[in-house]
Design a protein that fits this description.
It is a single chain. With 152 residues, the chain is mainly beta. It has one domain: Immunoglobulin-like (Sandwich). Strands 1, 2, 3, 8 and 9 form a 5-stranded antiparallel β-sheet that branches. A hairpin with a 4-residue loop joins strand 2 and strand 3. It is globular. It comes from Amycolatopsis halotolerans. This is DUF2690 domain-containing protein. InterPro entries: DUF2690. Pfam families: DUF2690 (PF10901).
Length: 152
Protein backbone atom coordinates (compact mmCIF):
# COMPACT_ATOMS: atom_id res chain seq x y z
CA UNK A 1 0.00 0.00 0.00
CA UNK A 2 1.20 3.52 -0.68
CA UNK A 3 1.56 6.41 1.75
CA UNK A 4 -1.15 8.75 0.44
CA UNK A 5 -1.40 11.98 2.34
CA UNK A 6 2.17 11.90 3.61
CA UNK A 7 4.14 15.06 2.85
CA UNK A 8 7.56 14.65 1.37
CA UNK A 9 10.26 17.20 0.54
CA UNK A 10 10.40 18.27 -3.10
CA UNK A 11 13.06 16.78 -5.36
CA UNK A 12 16.33 18.70 -5.85
CA UNK A 13 17.03 20.71 -8.96
CA UNK A 14 14.86 21.09 -12.02
CA UNK A 15 17.41 19.09 -14.05
CA UNK A 16 16.90 16.02 -11.83
CA UNK A 17 13.13 16.39 -12.09
CA UNK A 18 13.28 16.56 -15.90
CA UNK A 19 15.62 13.53 -16.00
CA UNK A 20 13.30 11.57 -13.73
CA UNK A 21 10.29 12.53 -15.88
CA UNK A 22 12.03 11.38 -19.06
CA UNK A 23 13.01 8.09 -17.42
CA UNK A 24 9.40 7.58 -16.28
CA UNK A 25 8.14 8.21 -19.82
CA UNK A 26 10.61 5.68 -21.20
CA UNK A 27 9.45 3.06 -18.67
CA UNK A 28 5.80 3.88 -19.42
CA UNK A 29 6.48 3.30 -23.10
CA UNK A 30 7.87 -0.14 -22.32
CA UNK A 31 4.80 -1.03 -20.24
CA UNK A 32 2.44 0.33 -22.87
CA UNK A 33 4.10 -1.80 -25.51
CA UNK A 34 3.88 -4.84 -23.22
CA UNK A 35 0.13 -4.49 -22.63
CA UNK A 36 -2.41 -2.53 -20.61
CA UNK A 37 -1.55 -1.59 -17.05
CA UNK A 38 -3.79 -3.05 -14.38
CA UNK A 39 -4.68 -6.19 -16.30
CA UNK A 40 -5.19 -9.42 -14.39
CA UNK A 41 -1.80 -10.65 -15.57
CA UNK A 42 -0.15 -7.63 -13.91
CA UNK A 43 -0.84 -9.07 -10.46
CA UNK A 44 -0.20 -12.82 -10.37
CA UNK A 45 -0.46 -12.70 -6.57
CA UNK A 46 -4.26 -12.08 -6.64
CA UNK A 47 -6.04 -14.95 -4.88
CA UNK A 48 -9.64 -13.89 -5.59
CA UNK A 49 -11.65 -12.08 -8.24
CA UNK A 50 -14.89 -10.12 -8.38
CA UNK A 51 -17.61 -11.14 -5.97
CA UNK A 52 -15.29 -13.91 -4.72
CA UNK A 53 -13.29 -11.14 -2.98
CA UNK A 54 -16.26 -9.74 -1.06
CA UNK A 55 -15.60 -9.84 2.67
CA UNK A 56 -11.92 -10.74 2.28
CA UNK A 57 -8.79 -8.85 3.35
CA UNK A 58 -7.13 -7.05 0.39
CA UNK A 59 -3.60 -7.56 1.73
CA UNK A 60 -4.03 -11.26 2.46
CA UNK A 61 -5.60 -11.84 -0.98
CA UNK A 62 -2.80 -10.04 -2.87
CA UNK A 63 -5.18 -7.36 -4.17
CA UNK A 64 -3.16 -4.46 -2.78
CA UNK A 65 -0.32 -5.24 -5.23
CA UNK A 66 -1.95 -3.41 -8.16
CA UNK A 67 -4.35 -1.18 -6.21
CA UNK A 68 -4.97 2.41 -7.20
CA UNK A 69 -6.69 5.24 -5.35
CA UNK A 70 -9.96 6.22 -7.04
CA UNK A 71 -11.29 8.66 -4.43
CA UNK A 72 -9.85 10.60 -1.50
CA UNK A 73 -11.70 12.15 1.43
CA UNK A 74 -9.73 14.54 3.66
CA UNK A 75 -11.61 15.30 6.86
CA UNK A 76 -8.84 17.59 8.11
CA UNK A 77 -5.05 17.87 7.81
CA UNK A 78 -4.57 14.62 9.77
CA UNK A 79 -7.47 12.39 8.68
CA UNK A 80 -7.76 10.73 5.27
CA UNK A 81 -9.88 8.01 3.69
CA UNK A 82 -9.08 6.43 0.33
CA UNK A 83 -11.18 4.33 -2.02
CA UNK A 84 -8.71 1.66 -3.16
CA UNK A 85 -9.46 -0.50 -6.21
CA UNK A 86 -7.62 -3.52 -7.58
CA UNK A 87 -8.13 -4.16 -11.32
CA UNK A 88 -6.71 -7.69 -11.02
CA UNK A 89 -9.12 -8.57 -8.22
CA UNK A 90 -12.00 -6.38 -9.49
CA UNK A 91 -12.62 -5.32 -5.90
CA UNK A 92 -12.59 -2.15 -3.77
CA UNK A 93 -12.03 -1.27 -0.13
CA UNK A 94 -11.59 1.79 2.07
CA UNK A 95 -8.23 2.62 3.64
CA UNK A 96 -8.15 5.14 6.49
CA UNK A 97 -5.17 7.07 7.84
CA UNK A 98 -5.02 9.10 11.05
CA UNK A 99 -1.80 11.05 11.59
CA UNK A 100 -2.99 12.00 15.11
CA UNK A 101 -3.18 9.76 18.19
CA UNK A 102 -6.10 11.92 19.41
CA UNK A 103 -8.25 11.87 16.25
CA UNK A 104 -9.93 8.61 15.26
CA UNK A 105 -11.32 7.96 11.78
CA UNK A 106 -13.73 5.32 10.49
CA UNK A 107 -14.42 4.55 6.82
CA UNK A 108 -17.03 2.57 4.88
CA UNK A 109 -16.98 1.30 1.29
CA UNK A 110 -20.24 0.66 -0.55
CA UNK A 111 -20.79 -1.49 -3.61
CA UNK A 112 -23.80 0.06 -5.36
CA UNK A 113 -25.69 -0.35 -8.61
CA UNK A 114 -28.67 1.28 -10.24
CA UNK A 115 -31.88 -0.69 -10.03
CA UNK A 116 -35.13 -0.29 -11.92
CA UNK A 117 -36.58 3.19 -11.76
CA UNK A 118 -33.21 4.78 -10.94
CA UNK A 119 -33.05 3.29 -7.47
CA UNK A 120 -29.62 2.75 -5.92
CA UNK A 121 -29.24 -0.76 -4.57
CA UNK A 122 -26.44 -1.38 -2.09
CA UNK A 123 -24.98 -4.82 -2.71
CA UNK A 124 -22.08 -4.65 -0.28
CA UNK A 125 -21.01 -2.60 2.74
CA UNK A 126 -17.68 -3.03 4.53
CA UNK A 127 -16.36 -0.75 7.30
CA UNK A 128 -13.26 -0.19 9.36
CA UNK A 129 -13.35 0.41 13.08
CA UNK A 130 -12.44 3.77 14.59
CA UNK A 131 -8.67 4.19 14.81
CA UNK A 132 -6.51 7.11 15.92
CA UNK A 133 -2.83 7.35 15.05
CA UNK A 134 -2.58 4.65 12.39
CA UNK A 135 -3.63 3.06 9.12
CA UNK A 136 -6.27 0.41 8.58
CA UNK A 137 -8.40 -0.95 5.76
CA UNK A 138 -11.76 -2.61 5.43
CA UNK A 139 -12.66 -5.92 3.88
CA UNK A 140 -13.42 -5.78 0.15
CA UNK A 141 -16.53 -5.32 -1.97
CA UNK A 142 -15.98 -7.24 -5.19
CA UNK A 143 -17.60 -7.35 -8.57
CA UNK A 144 -19.12 -4.86 -10.96
CA UNK A 145 -21.03 -2.37 -8.82
CA UNK A 146 -19.98 1.27 -8.48
CA UNK A 147 -17.92 1.87 -5.38
CA UNK A 148 -18.23 4.84 -3.01
CA UNK A 149 -16.75 5.62 0.40
CA UNK A 150 -17.71 7.69 3.42
CA UNK A 151 -15.58 8.68 6.40
CA UNK A 152 -16.18 10.21 9.80
Amino acid sequence: MSDEGQRRPMAGTGRRVVSAALAALAVAGVYTAAGPLGSASASPSARCHGSGCTGKDPEAQGCAADARTDQTIQLDAQLYAYLRFSPACDAAWVKTVSWSPEKPIQGTVYGERWGRGGQVIVECTQSTGYLAGGTQWSRMCGGDPMHEITAR
